[in-house]
Design goal:
With 44 residues, the protein is mainly alpha-helical. The protein has one helix and no strands. The N and C termini lie far apart (68 Å).
Length: 44
């Protein structure tokens, strides 16, 4: 029973880590997109 608890804890940790990584990835993608959008605007 204890082993099952450990496995569950590891899975939860991996899931949280993956979500955090995903959020970082989305943030960098958003930054890149907004930067591209600014670059597309003609400089007056």
């Amino acid at each position: 029973m204890k082993q099952q608890h450990v496995i569950h804890h590891v899975c939860a940790s991996v899931l949280v880590f993956a979500l955090a990584k995903g959020n970082d990835f989305m943030r960098t993608q958003d930054l890149r997109i907004s930067r591209d959008r600014r670059a597309d605007k003609p400089a007056d």
